[in-house]
Every structure is written in C-alpha cells, then in structure tokens.
Amino acid sequence: MAFEKGGENAYDVVIIGAGISGINFGYRLQERNPDLSYIILDGRHEMGGTWSLFQYPGIRSDSDLYTFGFPWRPWTEETSIAGGPLILNYLKESAQMYGIDKKILFHHQVNAANYSSEHKTWSFDVTANKTEKKTFRSKFVLLCTGYYDYHEPLKTVIPGIDDFKGKVIHPQFWPKDLDYANKNVVIVGSGATSVTVVPAMSRTASHVTMLQRSPSYILSTPSEDALERFIRRWFPVYYQHKLIRWKWIAVPFLLVTFCQYFPSLGKKMFRSATEPQLPPTVSYSPNFTPDYNPFEQRVCFCPDADFYRALRSGKASVETGVIEKVTADSVKLTSGKELHPDIIVTATGLKVRVGGGIDVSVDGKPYNVPEKYVWKGVMLQDLPNAAFVIGYVDASWTLGADATAQMICRMLNQMKKEGVDEIIPRLSDKEKNTMKDAPLLRLKSTYVKKGKDVLPKAADRGQWQARSYYWKDYLLAHYGDIKSSIEWNRS
User: What is the 3-state secondary structure (H, E, C) of 94-154?
Assistant: First the structure.
C-alpha cells in the first residue's frame, strides 16, 4: 500500500474530531497500525467534543461509563453514570497517557475535503486559529465528528416564544453566568437532557417544571449495584473491570432484546419500576405512558433515582400537554392551564448533521451524503478511503466507535498486505434492483425524524444493513467479510 511519507502536513491518516471517537481511533491506530502516521484535527480549543461543548447543569453520561469509557483504559470510579467534568478529565488523561494528545491540532477547522482519484489522496482545506489557511493531505480519512450540529440547535416552533420577557435558554449553549436561584423554571422537553437538568436545577431554583408534549421512559439505575459490589469484594482488581464491563454490555443487550420481542411485558416492567417512585401529586398516566414501545426512542436513565427524588421533594413537577402560546410572562397550554416561569429551557433535541458540515467532494464533484448507503455501518457508498463513526442508540456510543475503529484498522492492514491503495464501497446492479431502504438509526425520536434528509441510508440486506448490536459488530470487525460490495484497487 503506497502510503505517503513526509511532506508538509501530509499523513497516512487524518482523523477529524478529537472527541471520544477520535481519541479511540488514535489509540487503535497506534496499537494496530504503528507504521502509519496520523493527525487529529479539531476546530475547538480542547478535546472532548460533547463533553467540552455542553455545560448545562448536571451534564452527565446517558449510558454507563464501564462501556462508554475506553476498553483499553478502564473506568475505575465506583459509579456507572458520571458527570461531564469527570468524563472530560478521563478523556484528557487517557489521551495524555498514550501520547494521543501530541497528535491533536486544536483550532483547526476543516472546511472542505476533496478526494483525487488520480493521486489516491485526500486534500483538506483548513482554517487554523480562525485566520490562517492550511492544506492537509492524507491517504485515508476518519470522520469522528459526531452526529449533530455544534453551532446550531434543533429549531422547534413554539408559538409566541419570542414574546417571552424572561430568559430563553437552549442547553447546547448554556450561559455560564445564568442565575436561576429562587426562579421558576420551565423545561420544554422530556428527553435525557431534561431528565438531567430537572434534578440539578431543582436544588437551587424555586421550582422546576418539565413540560412535555409526550413522555419518555425513565429508568432509575444505582451508582453501584449489588453485583458490582460483589465483584469488587471478591475478585482481584485485574478482573474487576473486565467483569463489570461485560455485565454492562450483557444486561442492557438482554433488556433491549426482551423489550423488542415482548413489548407489552416491557411496558409493564417499566411501569412496575416507575410507579413506586412517584409522589402522590404526580400521576403515572399520562405523565409516564409513552405512545411507543421501550427503546423505540432512547430510554432515559437517572442515577440513584435523582429525577424521582426531585419530584418527591416538591421542588420539581411534570406537566404533560401542548403549548398553545407563550406570552410575555406565561406559558399557556391547550388544556387551559398556565405556567408562569422566569426562565424557559428549550431542551427539544439536537440538529442532526453528518461529517461536521464539511464540504466533501470526489474529483471536484460534490458528494451528497443523504443519497448514499452505509457499508457495514462504517463506510459510505462511492466514497473512497473514508470511514465515519456512528454509534448505537440503545448502548454506549463508544462500543460502536470501537467496533468501527477495529474494522478500519484491520482493513488498513489488509490494504498494505495486498498492495492496495484505494477501497471504495459500491452497489452492484443486482443490489440496486432488489434491496429496500431501512432506517440507519432504530429510533422514532423527533430529532431523528427531522434529520432523515441529512443522514445516509441503510438497506434491508447484504453489507448495507444498519449496525445491529455490539457482539455481532465485534465479530465482524475481526473475522467478517471485508471484500463484498467494495472495490479493492491497486494503482
């Protein structure tokens, strides 16, 4: 494989994004492809991605850290759900421990990427420090840019919101100087962000109301359960992380599978876990009765039942209804009820974006992502020498990111072994005529529905099926077919 060596800003691999996916890719390249040079480009001032950007009260993981953390650097804290600052510190320590931090260029915003079929090379137009123009080149590119827009939130139409005289805040751009002590707060939305913000703000606010048009499933999870305490007490330290990690891979997988095959029983199980947590003033129906089955949208987890404890304290409440109009000092619902907040938090979701908004082209021709299919969940149809990361919606993002990294590292080694310098996923004529479209993400969430015209497509068969679950993807990464529906070209 004719990887390029030397030259200014020329690397074998360019990784775009220094979040959890980019850092993990850097480690896997060092581990499995040590002969390849790489650089990580990030437009922000520090690594961490989501965990650097989001600063809203109580920011934390929405999955356990034993699987959300890196498999190569164990999560050693005795809590499964962790706060944002702790996660960011963990990422920085991990990158520093393995020298990955020395491979990152911050304040390097990638504006455009063009692949040359003649030279089998990617070129990147980059703005450094907001003013300096640079060009980087590589043979392979890894897009670790996440799935949402860092600069613009999802816009939701709320009638009259511009007439409100108080503060209107979106969690993605939380002001550091916001004082909500002794204020009445209305949080619009019922997803993981709302479930996080409600207990955090209720500690100092006068009252916090979660206003939802439709409810979510909210499941309490202990910071450390009995099985984890048993493992920590009776097993050597070397085995503790491995056992707890596999427990956190296995149990959610079994729970999700159970709910998919037995949705009615799944609903009953969630009800039996939720009702005992509610105070007499909060009814189960309609506030905790979603109109979809468990895991058709993301299930919200609250550590040590902090969300329900906030409800029982009387400092927080849930209101289910439709906003008719926001006035200068109130939120009027179609039911006739009125709320009188000092602050409105619009926790209404994220704006989906693929590739960090980079203008991608092949031989100068724009590449249109929504028209293309995803090969094995890791590469895009007709896009040479490129991979992108999309994680799981019902398990930790990092599990999917690492399965992708291991698959690509294996393919890079195979390219070198065979003297191949270009791989391109291609649809055969038979596939074009027989396969049907399928969702890339198995979610019915509003932000996913609104982002369907931005995301690439999956299919119902072959190498173009959507990513399924970690066990399968792990085996595919190590032993699966990497030749079907993909061209392996030698110069």
Answer: HHHHCCHHHHEECCEEEEEEEEECCCCEEEEEEEECCCEEEEEEEEEEEECCCCECCCCCC
Confidence of residue 39 (pLDDT cuts 50, 70, 90): very high
Name the fold adopted by 10-151+352-489. Answer: FAD/NAD(P)-binding domain (3.50.50)
Question: By percentage, how much of the chain surpasses pLDDT 70?
Answer: 97
Residue 2 confidence (pLDDT): 45
Structure tokens given for 156: 């939701």
pLDDT, residue 450, reads 65
Query: pLDDT band at residue 1, thresholds of 50, 70 and 90?
Result: very low
Instruction: Give the separation between CA 226 and CA 207, rounded to whole angstroms.
Output: 34
Output 444-453 pairs: Cβ under 8 A, ≥24 positions apart: 444/292, 444/296, 444/297, 445/191, 445/297, 445/298, 445/349, 446/348, 446/349, 447/154, 447/349, 447/350, 447/351, 447/352, 448/352, 450/154, 450/349, 450/351, 450/352, 451/351, 451/352, 451/353, 453/370
Q: What is the pLDDT of residue 449?
A: 63
Q: Pairing relation of β-strands 108-116 and 374-375?
A: unpaired
Secondary structure element (H or E) that encloses residue 397, with its range: helix 397-418
The reply to whether domains 10-151+352-489 and 161-346 share a CATH topology is yes
The alpha carbons of the chain give a radius of gyration, in whole angstroms, of: 23
List the chain domain ranges: 10-151+352-489, 161-346
Q: Which CATH superfamily is domain 161-346 in?
A: FAD/NAD(P)-binding domain (3.50.50.60)
Element (H, E) at 445: none
pLDDT digits (tens, 9 = 90+) for 419-432: 999 999 999 988 88
